[in-house]
């Protein structure tokens, strides 16, 4: 399916392309498809490309270019583009300990929602989440697919410190804090998995388009996996996912 | 090597930025005032991307352990070598054991120290720019030894002088383009945005400058989208936030204006309490 795209110069050396303002998996696939086509065709000129829910930003190395011509050639690339079939999305299994010692807001959510902690955990672990993009912090995934029973507003005043690996719910979204940070989301658990590691060539193992499944683990397993990660012997469970 | 005797208020190693990891949430970082940093490297015949030391507000005290050439550009903080005044924007000959220190800041906010061949601190993800979640250190500290390139052949001092126009350190005018959500603003908000003078607030840093005066805001938040340095966001309370080099790669506030590259450089030299005025330019 083709969308009506809007092309806008953003600054002297970048162009913003916008899709309809929706969180939608079909839009995501179209963005990632066009992203790859632009990378293949413009790689010599591009400094970086970045996407969000309904947008794609193309930043050029040089400021000296003609916006109109550039946009025209992008439009023709888009209209003649095919769906690339060589995408290899992965499904990652992320172990999470939903113990109240980590999930410091679990009891609050349970009270407010009149839902047992077990029910909340089972709803959080039964969804398959889609990674739309990574932003806010290095390695912070914007995930779609939270069960609407778990929607819960962000805190009115954010906490100054949220521990690395905290799994949280903010409004209609869920996510993992990849590093310690201030933040306003409600903490429901913790994962020992590192979502951002500068010592790796590819510092974040997740890509936009991948799927995430949270798997409940207990305190002992959390400790064990933490040790295995430190020693380099832990491998995150994953397999190819093609819809 | 350069030994840090005093760190100064906020001194960081920066190059032109860390690119290609934005899709993983990594900020661009890099020197705030690219114009001044590029000039410093140019005068030393360095590559434009050579890492420099960015000073904010006041200067450090540094001891050089070997001979080299340096250039200081940007804000004037009355630099001295062994207590003798030296000039900004000119090549300075340094001998082993020389001590570089600074006096009171005369104009501007950020100075740049370039050394021949550049600072050689550890590059992370393709850049030496310091950023707390990426590099081990987020500023230089007293007692640090900063590696620099070996430099055998010294340039004659003062042979090279800066002939290009410097930044206008007094002008309030900040050139902007329409931001992606500009056209959603109503006429009276646009009028205020482009006619009012705004004061830079105290909570302004490498990540963002915020402005004291707020304006009415009838726009809702947007679906989280991409942002870049120089993006001016309008928050629900009507406050304006200008994103700078260390900004996040995505944001959910309407993007009403976009600073030109030259204006980001210029704003980087303005401090809390200074006034600015936006001037809209056609793209």
From TrEMBL, chain A:
It holds the Pfam family CT_C_D. This is 5-oxoprolinase subunit PxpB. It comes from Microcosmobacter mediterraneus. It comes from the Bacteria. GO terms for molecular function: 5-oxoprolinase (ATP-hydrolyzing) activity. The keyword Membrane applies. NCBIfam families: 5-oxoprolinase subunit PxpB. InterPro entries: CT_C_D (IPR003833), Cyclophilin-like_dom_sf (IPR029000), PxpB (IPR010016). Residues 5-206 form the Carboxyltransferase domain. Gene3D superfamilies: 3.30.1360.40, Cyclophilin-like. Its EC number is 3.5.2.9.
From TrEMBL, chain B:
Residues 23-283 form the Carboxyltransferase domain. The keyword Transport does not apply. InterPro entries: CT_A_B (IPR003778), Cyclophilin-like_dom_sf (IPR029000), PxpC (IPR052708). It comes from the Bacteria. Keywords: ATP-binding, Hydrolase, Nucleotide-binding. PANTHER family: 5-OXOPROLINASE SUBUNIT C. This is Biotin-dependent carboxyltransferase family protein.
